[in-house]
Amino acid sequence: MDFEETFTSPNETLTLNFTMDSGIPGYSMSYNGIEIITPSELGVVFSEVDMSEGLILDAYEISAYDETWSQPWGEQKEIRDHHKQVKFYLTKNVTGEKMNLTFRLFDEGLGFRYAWPEQKGLQDFVISDEVTEFNLAGNHTSWWIGAYQLNRYEHLFNETRVSEIDTVHTPLTMKTDDGLHLSIHEAALTDFASMTIANNGHNTLEADLVPWNNGDKVRGSAPHISPWRTIALGKTAGDLMTNYITLNLNEPSKLEDTSWLETGKYTGIWWDMHLGTKTWGSGPDHGATTEYTKELMDFTAKHGFYGVLVEGWNTGWDGDWAANSDIFSFTETYPDFDIQEVTRYADSLGVKLIGHHETSTGISNYEAQVEDAFDLYNEVGVEAVKTGYVGDFVEGGEWHHGQFMVRHYRDIVRKAAEHKIMLNVHEPIKDTGIRRTWPNMMTREGARGQEYNAWSVDGGNPPSYTTIVPFTRGLVSPFDYTPGVFNLLLTDKPENPNNNRVMHTLAKELALYVVIYSPFQMISDLPRNLEAQPVALEWVKAVPTDWETTIVPEAEIGDHVVVVRKDRNSNDWFLGGITNEEAREFEIELDFLEAGKIYEAHIWADGDEADWETNPYPLERTTQELTSETILELDLAKGGGVAIRFAEMD
Question: Is this prediction's pTM over 0.85?
Answer without folding.
Answer: yes
